[in-house]
Amino acid sequence: MDIALFLIMISSGSLLGVSVFGRRFEEGLPVTCGGLILWLYGFGLCGQLPMGVYTACALAALMCVFSLLWAVWKKQIGEFLAGVCTPGAIFFFAAVALCGYCVSGKLFDAVEELSHYGDAVRAMIMVDGLNLAENSQAIFRADLPGLYLLQYLLQKLYVLKTAETFCEWRTYLPAAVLTIAFVAPSLRGLTLRQAGYALPVCAALLIAPLLIGQNVYLVLSPLPVLCVVMASGIMSLREGGQGNGMAVLRVVACCVVLSLLHESGIAFALVLAIAAILALQYAGKDIRKNLLTCAALAGAAVLPGLSWALAAGCSVLPEPLSALT
After folding, report:
1. Which of 34, 69, 74, 231 is 20 to 30 A removed from 202 (C-alpha atoms)?
2. What is the DSSP letter of 22?
3. Which helix (H) or strand (E) holds 32?
């Protein structure tokens, strides 16, 4: 139930895009993920992370209901279903189901180099706040929380459902969901007839690493996600430069996620934002008429990382490495 609710929240923006703006389901996934991370991040900085979860759930429910009512009111049920039942949507849910199967029951490994990422999420659940909170027991409290926030969201939904404190394998699933959400828009041009050729190739690409071992999908590090998000942003640059509003929103979402995933992602976000602004110029767009777009791109690349640096500088005191051993 908690995983289903989590996926509904991830899909809510896509449903709104299909119903109101006539987009395809997979086009809105990165925008929803970026917006959800930014929403939780803002509440977390204010010390109200649980409230961010509750309001995000309410907002997602409103978006889903409004999308359905809008389609009924406009008598566009057929178009709505066609926009939802796309190869990209099938790929998204099938890939998430596969990754869910792979991570089911996985526990943190005491000798795994990257287990401290899971430790940070556990600390967030314990204090109901960001990993840099004063009472947080996270090993690395100043780590950027982009991926942690989605992991916290799923864990919080699980805790509310079961009254248990933590479920380790659910920490792995949001990383896979975030990765797949940013891959799915690459299939937005496919029809169901073409999907008969393309989806088996995608399925083979997903299944092939399993021949090496299930551990291929059991990674807590945000770095693989970082690479996929950057690639997704580059893929959206061309359409964004031509004035495609959804593509511009995807680039903005990529900048937000990059700047909150990892320290190195801040540089990637800046490069992506600059490239997107230049793409508008090269496409013959008047920058003076697109100041809001340029400001959104620049703000998405700079403000999240800057605000985290300021918050971490105020709350996290430097510790010698020996104190962690």
Report:
1. 34
2. -
3. helix 29-45
Q: Are 172 and 214 in contact (CB under 8 A)?
A: no
Tokens, residue 235: 């893929």
Q: 258 and 268 in contact (C-beta within 8 Å)? A: yes
What is the pTM for the complete model shown?
0.89
| Burial of residue 294, with CB atoms counted within 10 A of its CB: 0-12 exposed, 13-18 middle, 19 or more buried | middle
Residue 323 has pLDDT above 50, yes or no: no
CA-closest candidate to residue 174, choices 229, 219, 116, 234:
219
Residues 214-250: tens digit of each pLDDT: 555 667 778 888 888 998 899 888 776 566 788 889 9
State which amino acid sits at residue 256. Answer: V
Q: Give the Å distances, CA to CA, from 320 to 143, 309, 317, 323.
A: 16, 19, 10, 6
Look at residue 325 and tell me whether its pLDDT is greater than 50. Answer: no
Please give the distance of CA 68 from its chain centroid, rounded to a whole number.
Answer: 24
The pLDDT, as a whole number, for residue 187 is: 82
- d(CA 116, CA 217) in angstroms, rounded, equals 17
SS3 state at 46: coil
Crossing angle of helices 173-183 and 223-241, rounded to 10°? 20
CA torsion, points 298, 283, 234, 88, in degrees to nearest 10?
A: 110
Residue written as token pair 């999907």:
195
Residue 270's nearest CA partner among 305, 320, 317, 225 is: 305
Tokens at 290, concatenated: 């697109």
**Residue showing tokens 């020996």:** 322
Which DSSP letter does residue 138 get? -
Structure tokens at 226: 């970082």
Q: Where are the domains of the chain?
A: 2-75+96-190+197-316
Q: Which residues are CB-neighbours of 107 under 8 A, at least 6 positions away? A: 168, 169
pLDDT of residue 141: 78
Per residue in 102-148, pLDDT tens? 888 777 765 454 566 778 888 888 888 888 877 777 777 778 888 99
